Prior knowledge:
- It is built from nine helices and 16 strands.
- The chain is α/β, with parallel strands linked by helices.
- Strands 5-10-2-1-13-15-16-14 form an eight-stranded mixed beta sheet, with helices on both faces. Strands 3-4 form a two-stranded antiparallel ribbon. It has a two-stranded antiparallel sheet with strand order 6-9.
Amino acid sequence: MKENVAELLVEALPYIRNFSGKRVVIKYGGHAMVDETLRQGFASDITLLKYIGVNPVVVHGGGPQISKVLDRMGITSTFVRGMRYTDGQTMDVVEMVLGGKVNKEIVAGINAQGGKAAGLTGKDGGMIMADKLKIYQDSEGEQPPEIIDPGMVGSVSNVNPEIIHTLADKGFIPVIAPVGVGKNGETYNINADLVASSIASALNAERLILLTDVDGVLDTDGTLISSIGFEKIQQMIKDRHIQGGMIPKVECAVDALKNGVKKSHIVNGKINHAVLLELFTDSGIGTQVYKE
């Protein structure tokens, strides 16, 4: 048993050496955020990364937590093309839950493992500037195309990473809620995968890791693809081998590569210590996407 542990440490050595001093952006969400064992495992993974010289940046979601609070308040959630319709009242709850309860729980979990985490939203330091998201519905049959309004849902227009650099250089682990600010000071709810991809690009990060509730990208036989070039993955989308909720995740992974990130990873966060297993083992556990 001890020999196996030693072999794993030796296997991890070249990866630790390669990632030392580099930025790694991790999108944290899904089942990994609600299962207590996985939450503790994630917090210890992030703390360990910092101690061995890697600079992790965490971007988190919080959809289920938002839904619970809205239900308690008697506010009905409605969804537009898979996105929560966000009116002013809902936006107040989103900001409160993401920037308050969820963010501070993640910060506290990392700190409990010996790390130094600092919670932020995209509004802090003007980090995330946003535009209102407009959804274009293509025409179907005799129906004309239309623009669907999802409310206060945004897309990232610019990332200013100055506050991230400042915190990381002082030994802190930034934990970021995906809330941005518009040109007139309005607040926008933004998809966490999109925010993580945009931040990774702004940081020229070594890696972007998207934790999800599935193993990664599967081939037509349902077998996990451990490594794939982004041109092939774009073809898989066109051929409809990649569908549904995996499409936006893959697109975020590809966009990051196009904007300077070295590699992206789509990983099953339901596996304990998923981040370490993906980064520091030869085979990994998810899908690695690279620029060809």
